[in-house]
Amino acid sequence: MRYPLGAGIASCLGPSQGDADRRRHAAAKGDNMRGIRSAAIATLVASTLALGTASTSLAGVLNGHGDAFNAIAGTVPFNNGTGLSGTVDYAVFTSAAFNSNFAGLGYVPGDSLVYTFQVFSQGSVAVTGFELLALSDANTIGSFDIGDVPPTSSAFVGLDAQWLFAAGIPGGQSSWGLAFSSSVEPIVAFFEILGAPEALLAAGLPKPFGVADVPEPNAVGAILAAALAGLGWSRRRRRAS
User: DSSP character for 55?
Assistant: First the structure.
């Protein structure tokens, strides 16, 4: 038998049976919504940390690199709508794979995995900085010569990895490869692109965060929330300074 939706179910089943059905329906709805949220988070992780992210005309060697660890390589666009735009290519390598592809270009790995990035500027506002936010277990920050503009500063600032470009990366040019090492496998990270005076916050790059493997989907939301909380603390710290 098919029953009408909503209150009509109770009227068809009688008071006690209708109350029980409503409780079962609410429980099933809650389970379904939790499943939808978990699936959405899992899709975010898979789509942002998987090989095959769409490339652009300025995409470089890191995007889709065939030697990337677990095929973690791609590109993420950014655009604040007022001139600060471009993409960030990324790839995670084992130290052996990095050395076989980029040895002698200025970066020596300090751990089992190497996280690499390259910023491509495409807008009217030059990129003056790139930050990957709220890291853990990261070391040996630096750069390697695969692009146009080397960073003038490479440093860990609090929990963040930061590369600065004093003269900026103008539209149509790219940064050198930017790198740090870790023993920890990646999750999804927030990052910040700096311009003068523009800035923007985005997500979709890989970062280490103190676990041996990519976490279960239900854990990703909590980790991203922690990253945002860390970002808020970091920004308050910068304003205070």
Answer: P
**3-state secondary structure (DSSP) of residue 186:** strand
Instruction: For residue 120, give the nearest of 158, 75, 161, 159 by alpha carbon.
Output: 75
- What CA–CA distance (Å, rounded) separates 87 from 120? 5
Helix (H, G, I), strand (E, B) or coil at 206: strand
The span from the CA of 41 to the CA of 38, in Å, is: 5
Closest C-alpha among 195, 186, 185, 136 to residue 160: 136
How far is it, in rounded angstroms, from Cα 88 to Cα 169?
A: 13
Q: What angle do CA 74, 231, 220 make, to 5 degrees?
A: 55
- Label residue 143 left, alpha or beta by phi (over 0 means left) and psi (-120 to 50 means alpha): beta
Query: Which positions ≥6 away from 175 have C-beta within 8 Å?
Result: 118, 119, 120, 127, 130, 143, 147, 148, 149, 150, 151, 163, 165, 169
pLDDT in tens, 93-151: 999 999 999 999 999 999 999 999 999 999 999 999 999 999 989 999 999 999 999 99
- Cβ atoms of 189 and 76 within 8 Å: the answer is no
Task: Give the count of beta carbons closer than 10 Å to the beta carbon of residue 114.
Answer: 27
Per residue in 179-221, pLDDT (tens digit) is: 999 999 999 999 999 998 889 999 999 999 865 444 444 444 4
